[in-house]
Give the backbone structure.
Amino acid sequence: MYSTSIVFDAVGQVLHSPLTLPIVVVCTIAIILHRVFCVYTSLLRDIPGPFIARLTPLHLEASTVRGRMAAYGLSHMHTHGDIFVCQPRSVCISDPSDIRRILSSSSFHKSPYYRVLQFTGIDSIISTSEPHAVSMKRRMLGPFFSTSYISKMEHIVVQYGARAICNRWTKLLEQSQDQRIQINYEATFSMCTFNVISRLVFGQDIAALDPRAPEESLKWMTDATTYMSIRALLRLLPSFVFRAVTWPWEHLYDKFTDHVRTSIDTRAQLLREKCEERPVDLLQALMDCTDPESKVTLQEEEIHAESLLLLIGGIDPTAYTLTWTLHMLMLYPQCYEQLKHEIRSHFPSQEISYAMAKDKLPYLEACIYESMRLVPVPHVMIPRIVPNAGTTIKGHYLPPGTTVFANIVGSHLNPTHWPDPHRFDPTRFLDPHTRRTAIHSVFTFGYGNRICMGKHLAWLNMTTILANLLQKFDFSLPDGYTRTGPNVIDPATGHPKLMDRTEFITAKPANHHLDCMLVVTSVK
């Protein structure tokens, strides 16, 4: 008590000292002058951008923590152009050709921003920015995410994805008196994608994860992954604030990680007891992968870290790309009819495999690409660090150490490169003269040497689901629904209004219980 009173007395004397206020004023002025001096001597001073972004990095980080990073990038692209300052030593770029150059170069390393994805205290292939570690992880995991290995898992993907939905809807239609049902397609796609990824990553059916209904399993999994996303962004805050905000929800993360550990232990026991045939799934891939150069394998903690990110990265992007694609088809009936005709003319009745769809259904692929362009589900900007040699973008020299943010949403809606950018137009990806450039200007899965390794798996899942659903079922908006539709025009774009969305890391429907309802009937 005595020492505490001494401290309080000392603080009181400082606060009441006649020198305190002048010192505070002088320090404040010095800080402001230093900031202003840095603004006008910065090598980025000639690049347009908001003045506050030149003074403090908090302008962008506040948008990031609020889940508004993509909206920030889009707004300032329209105001300042294809390159603008977004932090004192950072710029944001929105030209697809510039983004391709930056993301395809191994010289531009990942920004420390990626540390927020270090959930277990161990770097994963996504969170690490060290080039040697990245190369080693890609050598280890690359063969298991190739098209040839992914094709070996297609029976699992179709069983828990397209076939499961078709069987469920067919059964419900048989039980329906008027041969029509109303479904929530966002919930359907989330559930089936959860089924697929859980089976591949946990190595178990969804029922094995939780004895309650599958919907309960999905709920706690969704809550846990959402919490981990929030947890990641809050790491941008001081550590004491981070702990104070997140501790009430730690049990979600603990339950989630317990299942990962249990799955690894169960698989290891299975292999000890029965080794005749090793399972072909993502869990086994993580347990078997070996660096061909160093012969290093993943330790249990690393398998844990990679499993968490496979779950987070495997569920939402696929489920919500499917959701947005079907939503846009309902807004553009001509595209919907054209896609139905393509699918049913080639495949009247048989189940459609991924290879069959790739060979015969180019318009389906174009619809998915156009959906990913209009609403890229990962609603973030991708940061890279300028190498020691520096670089020049749009005539502006960027010194070494500058952070360059690839503005994905902005580039996808850049009117200079996409005519009438807010219109859903799959033909952008069908013209043989422009198709390759168009595909390489969609950055939903990243680009270059750090492109998402799960891209092939996501395409397999999305393609087989949409192809088989549109082959077997017809869709229509519910009677009396007026929130969106072909005739509900957005005054800001002049095109059918997209349903409202939340943009916290991923772009999700804000009111899926209202906006993601469709009437389903069987094809006659």
About this structure: The two ends are 85 Å apart (CA to CA). Confidence is low (pLDDT under 50) at residues 208-212. The longest strand covers residues 517-522.
